[in-house]
Amino acid sequence: MVEGKARIACSGIAVAPVFEVKDAGLELEKIIAGSVERELAAFEQAVDVARSQLTALIDSLPADSEAAEIMEMHLMMADDPDLLDPVRKLIGNGGISAVAAMLKAGTEQAEEFKSLDDPYMQARSADILDVSRRIACAAAGVEYQPALSARSIIVADDLTPSQTVGFKREFIAGIVLRHGTMNSHAAILARNMGVPSLIEATELAAGLSGKILAVDAVNGRYYVEPDNETLRHLQEIKNDWDKEQLKLLALRGKEAIAPCGHRILTAANIGSPDEIEFALDNDCEGVGLMRSEFLFIGRDDYPSEEEQYQAYARVASALNGRPLIIRTLDIGADKKCPYFNLPAEENPALGLRALRICLTRPELFKIQLRSICRAAARGKIRLMLPMVISITEIQKTKALLQECAQELSLEGKEYVLPPVGIMIETPAAAVLSATLAKEVDFFSIGTNDLMQYTCAIDRQNPRLEPFYDPHHPAVLELIRQTAVNAHQAGIFVGICGEMASDPVLTDLFIEFGIDELSVSPSRILALRHRILNSHAHCLNERPSNCNF
Amino acid sequence: MQEIIYKITDPRGIHARPAGQLVKLIKEYKSTCQLGSATNLVDGKHLLSVMKLSLQQGDSLTLQFSGADEKEAADAVLKFLQENL
Q1: Which of A66, A70, A120 to mutate to test the interface with B (most CBs of B within 10 A)?
Q2: B13 in contact with chain A, both atoms CB, cutoff 8 A
Q3: A85 touches chain B (CB under 8 A)
Q4: In this structure, are residues A95 and A34 in contact, taking their beta carbons and an 8 Å threshold?
Q5: B23 touches chain A (CB under 8 A)
Q6: Which residue of A331, A507, A512, B55 sits 20 to 30 Å from the alpha carbon of A472, by its own alpha carbon?
Q7: CB contact under 8 A, A82 and B47
Q8: Which CATH number applies to B2-84: 2.120.10.30, 3.30.1330.60, 3.30.1340.10, 3.30.1050.10?
């Protein structure tokens, strides 16, 4: 048994076999297409490599076993003109690499299977994707890693957002990262799913695949191949932890009103629509931040208006009258999306990202705005713009919204124009908050970026953690001013960054008169507990004409 | 041309494994094979096309063979269908 220390990103206990994520992912944005002849040759060679991998795999498996049969099917797919001919055609059209063409054609074929009536055949789409990835990896010259297929502890140096969303939730027992930071997307996603997770497990050895790993994300420890005594000890910790959770569960259905009388809406941050289930389990009073970019990343093409509409409408109806704040597309910087073909930038955090991309490509932005307007007819939806620095950006977006509304009514489609709010996550927006408040229906303070831009600290850079003050007075002062300006203009103000769940700050946010705190679902009830027991006094009361 | 019409009796329909075996068998012959329902015929040598037909118990499967060894192909495939589906 080997043990070690790490930082807790999301609490809990988990014991399961390790699924080690290899560093060499398929980074499509780094693959440049060569000539048609070269890519075609690379493709045919990749098919041969994939077929010999599969043949070797079949030989290593017991004959007539189910695993061997599945691999036989994969081998036939890797020779099927239905799968391969569209790839050859795509490459023939030019300008696309063998890797990208294979993934695109495979995804399309898999989508066709997903739309079949027979649930058994629908599930075969996973096989098609698996074969496509195997061939694409061979073309890219990286090691192929089969998809996660059983409950496991995911171990990696670090995870990109698209890697993290690529795992099936039911198979993630825990996550242990050798690097990673508290505010990295992998850590945020882990908290949204309530998965026991550790970061900065710097001592954790490589080559653990298949070994049993015990994750104690209550004390910040891990054990490789734990002995029986350790397992018994972990079981005790888990029992205590479960009891603590049960106490918090008793707070479901209660409004978070502080003893001073200030009520705070305790809402959830979610990524993909699936996360709404876990948020409702934890009794969210709304969704304060739906990160719509998770509908866009980890795929090869833009989601359609219909697909987006379905996703938003599904979350809105699940919330059953409680508010849903949808943040419009926030990609760029550390959230990458290859098919947007964004130029490489010297300084992505200060580059073409989020609303800036949307306003540069209005035809694309309108697809999202239209789908949100349509979904707003199905629930209490609010639209929120990220990365705002000026009033012009708000006015431009509102003009686009008007265009969408006119189009939708000409088409006879049902829609509602949602209230429009903005993220306060740039110092510019915080400083201008008195002016901006007159133009919008609400504010939500994004503390992660506000911290990064105010203190000039890159939140993905672990070397800067010694300089990072999670309670930096400049940021707290910007939050206070923003809240005062919001209430003076009669609009509500929330916080949806990681600070919202910081236990040390709950009292301060009550003093500031923050109206809504939106946090990872696993942290809602603990937050509610702190509000209900706070001794703070609200110094910035909500005006009576201001509603959530 | 040789034509077979066969009613599927296997309660699971033509699932991935028998579809694979069927396509493998058809590929052993030079003759072309179109198969499916009377209105929707696909190339019997293409696994994904055959799977996408998503044939269920009780469905009628039409197979049309054309080529030099069409008789042998039809006989072998009919035997396979009777034994497996």
Answers
A1: A120
A2: yes
A3: no
A4: no
A5: yes
A6: A331
A7: yes
A8: 3.30.1340.10
For the segment A380-398, the average pLDDT, to the nearest whole number, is: 97
Q: For tokens 């040789």, name the residue.
A: B2
* Closest-CA residue of chain B to A72: B20
| DSSP 8-state class, residue A343 | P
B46 has catalytic annotation? no
Say how far apart CA A207 and CA A203 lie, in whole Å: 13
Q: Give the C-alpha distances (Å, rounded to integers) separating A310 from A27, A154, A193.
A: 29, 30, 21
Question: What are the pLDDT digits (tens) for A501-540?
Answer: 999 999 999 999 999 999 999 899 999 999 999 999 999 9
Give the predicted TM-score (pTM) of the model.
0.67
User: Are residues A76 and B23, on separate chains, in Cβ contact within 8 Å?
Assistant: yes
Q: Is B47 on the interface with A (CB under 8 A)?
A: yes
What is the per-residue pLDDT across A331-362, written as a single tens digit (0 to 9) for each? 886 677 878 888 888 888 899 999 999 999 99
Confidence of residue A23 (pLDDT cuts 50, 70, 90): low
Cβ atoms of residues A487 and A513 within 8 Å: yes
Band (pLDDT 50/70/90 cuts) for residue A142 is confident
- Mutation choice for A interface testing from B21, B33, B52 by most A CBs within 10 A: B52
Q: Identify the DSSP state of A241.
A: H
Q: Is the pLDDT of residue A24 over 60?
A: no
